[in-house]
Amino acid sequence: MPPALILTAAVLSVSTGAVFFRLSEAPALAAAFWRPCIATLFFLPFALRAARGMNPRLWFIGLPGGFFLAVHFAAWIASLEYTTVAASVVLVTTTPIWTALIAPRITGDRISSRAAIGIAIAFVGAVIVGLGDFSATPRALLGNGLAIIGAVTATGYMLAGRLRIGLVPVPVYLVSLYGTAAFFGALFAVASGAPLVGYSANTMLYLGLLALFPQIIGHSSYNLALRTLPAQTVSACLLGEPILSALLAWIVLSEPVTAVTFVGGAIVLTGLYFAVVGALPKTAKMSSDG
Predict the structure, then answer these.
(1) For 69, which of 123, 180, 181, 273 could close a Cys bridge (C-beta 3.0–4.6 Å)?
(2) Which residues, other chains included, contact 280 with Cβ-Cβ below 8 Å and sequence gap of 6+?
(3) Are 3 and 285 in contact (CB under 8 A)?
(4) CA angle, corner 286, sides to 281 and 290, nearest 5?
(5) Each residue of 87-130: pLDDT tens digit?
(6) Is pLDDT above 90 for 46?
(7) Distance from the first to the final alpha carbon of the chain
(8) Cα 76–Cα 82–Cα 84 angle in degrees, nearest 5
């Protein structure tokens, strides 16, 4: 499958996460547990089949990334309880900036000047999207801070994936990754006093959708793309999330979308085009062009 198509599926799916969480009305840390837990159970049969004859120690290959993913979910989902969807998602998708700074030292990946310019353009657009949604209240500032923590830990999660996902079959890595995230998510929930069970059927339905679209389809597509693309490029695609998330929040949650969102959205999409196309291998570019 062409990398551009994989990343498109990832962005479209991940963008539903904020809305599904709001609709679930579950505590943030409970959602941070159920999301990777359901994804782990989904991929487990495929992983068991792919792992035949594999060294059992490789089941722990996702520990570093899973820990970062657990903190990412806990911080970002909690931020949605304090600030708007648009502001939260804009801040959590500053991941490309942290990734661009750290990745060359960790993974050795280098990106083209065209891709770097694309990341910069997309980031500017994402900031513009959030300008009309930021608030100076202490509650909103707490939410914004949690979203930034989510962005930094997402960088660790993606860099770990870039280094490790190619060492085992993809389903094995995803089970190790998501299983670790679910384990730490459960610890965080229990420590905070958030119940893991006892929710209504409606809440569990939306938690299931939160696992299906943003996690099983979205994050798994990001991890698949990490096998062939630099972490900087994959993380840059996160910048498409604020646009779609803001639109969904407007349609479903009646959170208004301003003209700033549309202007910033056009800039983000332009930057994403250069970021993705500029980093694709030549063969991938040819296939994506037709």
Answers:
(1) 181
(2) 3, 4, 229, 233, 288
(3) no
(4) 145
(5) 888 888 888 778 877 877 887 777 778 878 888 888 888 777 66
(6) yes
(7) 13
(8) 80
Look up the domain containing 10 and give its range. Answer: 3-288
The two three-digit tokens of residue 187, written as one number: 């610890």
Query: How much of the chain is in helix, strand and coil states, percent to nearest 5?
Result: 80, 0, 20
How far is 185 from 35, CA to CA, in rounded Å?
9
> With contact defined as beta carbons under 8 Å apart, do 164 and 68 qualify?
no
Residue with tokens 């280094």: 163
CA-CA-CA-CA torsion sign (180, 183, 189, 190): negative
Share of residues in the chain with pLDDT > 90 (%): 51
135 vs 79: CA distance, rounded Å: 13
**101: how many CB neighbours lie within 10 A of its CB?**
11
Is the pLDDT assigned to residue 209 strictly greater than 70?
A: yes
Residue that is written with structure tokens 């999207």 in the block: 129
Amino acid, res. 20: F
Residue 274 gets the label, from left (phi > 0), alpha (psi -120 to 50) or beta, of alpha
Cα–Cα distance, 46 to 49 (Å, whole number) = 5
pTM, to two decimals: 0.83
- What whole-number distance in Å separates Cα of residue 241 and Cα of residue 275? 15
Tell me 51's DSSP state. Answer: T
* Phi-psi map region of 254: left, alpha, beta (phi>0 left; psi -120 to 50 alpha): left
Length of the chain: 290
| Element holding 189 (H helix, E strand) | helix 170-192
How far apart CA 54 and CA 61 sit, in angstroms, is 12
SS3 of residue 40 by DSSP: helix
- Number of domains forming the structure of the chain: 1
Q: Are 58 and 168 in contact (CB under 8 A)?
A: yes
